[in-house]
């Protein structure tokens, strides 16, 4: 069978393969009302293999008309006899960093609703186009190999919910074709084209990049290759951790000889040990690299070194690196 063209709709056999992990389980579809999620819900409904299928739309309340779009999404779900809920993001909205805050609020609302409904699997309609944009955004932000693997197809969230992105290798154009052929309407979010947002600005440049060979497909392939590499490195880090690291609960000792390992292994050992402090999650990679470089230089010089980073004290001696919570800062005395 020849490979599907970018404009070919997703066919039943392909959908069954994409949805295989969902067989017999309780699934919540994040239904924004856009073409991607509308097509996803329709494909899941036609497949019929989930144990239970429900949908929810998050109304972020960031613009006029968002609630009407959520109502239309609910009407579409009802036409398929799929239970649907509108989840509203209430309270004050931040003036900066709205994309990240809205994303966090969206997942929090979806997960809360899943707990009420007893659904264990969250399914979102991220496409190959979304993956390509994510890779470019992370490249622009200076991400390393872990970031450049993009979004993962299947992840286990912190609360045990399984999050599947079954369409991550499917171009959006194929999903649009699915609903166009059946006359199913969808909503267009004007914020997707708003140059105030980084993803929208990047989206405007995609055609130019594609003409130079940097297509969505090639970016998605890059993400897959980075994922393979990342998994291989993590396996090596697992072995190095077992051999060189002791301790738990925010008090770790790393044998100094670990600084004779390849730099990427040492860097990831350091990050894992620091990760007991949540501040590390927002730490820029270049700051972690600077710390690892300073420690490596001190190790090769036979020198001791003490640093603090992300609320942790990092102390290198001749024999080991010890990582502990940094003491609280003393308040400044009034002048």
From TrEMBL:
One Gene Ontology MF term: tRNA(Ile)-lysidine synthase activity
One Pfam family per UniProt: ATP_bind_3
EC numbers: 6.3.4.19
Catalysed reaction, written as an equation: cytidine(34) in tRNA(Ile2) + L-lysine + ATP = lysidine(34) in tRNA(Ile2) + AMP + diphosphate + H(+)
GO cellular component terms given for this protein: cytoplasm
Record keywords, A-Z: ATP-binding, Cytoplasm, Ligase, Nucleotide-binding, tRNA processing
Domain tRNA(Ile)-lysidine/2-thiocytidine synthase N-terminal: 27-204
Subcellular compartments: Cytoplasm
Binding-site residues for ATP, renumbered to this chain: 32-37
Transmembrane segments: none
UniProt main location, coarse: cytoplasm
Free-text comment on this protein's domains from its UniProt entry: The N-terminal region contains the highly conserved SGGXDS motif, predicted to be a P-loop motif involved in ATP binding.
Function: Ligates lysine onto the cytidine present at position 34 of the AUA codon-specific tRNA(Ile) that contains the anticodon CAU, in an ATP-dependent manner. Cytidine is converted to lysidine, thus changing the amino acid specificity of the tRNA from methionine to isoleucine.
Homology family: Belongs to the tRNA(Ile)-lysidine synthase family.
Protein name: tRNA(Ile)-lysidine synthase
Gene this protein is translated from: tilS
């Amino acid at each position: 069978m020849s490979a599907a063209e970018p404009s070919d709709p997703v066919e039943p056999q392909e959908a069954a393969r994409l949805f295989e992990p969902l067989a017999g389980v309780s699934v919540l579809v994040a239904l924004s009302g856009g073409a991607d999620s509308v097509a996803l819900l329709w494909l899941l409904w036609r497949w019929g293999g989930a144990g239970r299928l429900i949908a929810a739309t998050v109304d972020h309340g960031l613009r006029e008309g968002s609630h009407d779009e959520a109502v239309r999404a609910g009407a579409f779900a009802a036409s398929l006899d799929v239970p649907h809920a509108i989840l509203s993001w209430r309270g004050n909205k931040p003036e900066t960093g709205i994309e990240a805050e809205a994303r966090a609020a969206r997942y929090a609302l979806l997960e809360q609703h899943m707990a009420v409904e007893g659904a264990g699997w969250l399914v979102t309609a991220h496409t190959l186009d979304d993956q390509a944009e994510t890779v470019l955004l992370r490249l622009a932000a200076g991400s390393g190999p872990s970031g450049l693997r993009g979004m993962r197809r299947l992840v286990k969230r912190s609360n045990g919910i399984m999050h599947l992105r079954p369409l991550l290798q499917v171009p959006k154009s194929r999903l649009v074709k699915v609903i166009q052929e059946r006359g199913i309407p969808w909503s267009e979010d004007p914020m997707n084209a708003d140059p105030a947002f980084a993803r929208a600005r990047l989206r405007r440049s995609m055609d130019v990049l594609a003409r130079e060979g940097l297509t969505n497909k090639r970016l998605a392939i890059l993400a897959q290759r980075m994922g393979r590499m990342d998994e291989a490195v993590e396996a090596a880090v697992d072995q190095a951790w077992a051999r060189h690291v002791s301790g738990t609960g925010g008090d770790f000792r790393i044998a100094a000889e670990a600084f004779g390992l390849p730099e990427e292994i040492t860097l990831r050992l350091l990050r894992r040990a620091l990760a007991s402090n949540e501040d590390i999650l927002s730490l820029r990679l270049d700051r972690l690299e600077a710390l690892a470089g300073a420690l490596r230089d001190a190790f090769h010089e036979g020198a001791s070194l003490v640093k603090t980073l992300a609320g942790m004290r990092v102390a290198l001696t001749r024999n080991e690196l010890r990582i502990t919570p940094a003491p609280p800062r003393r308040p400044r005395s009034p002048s």
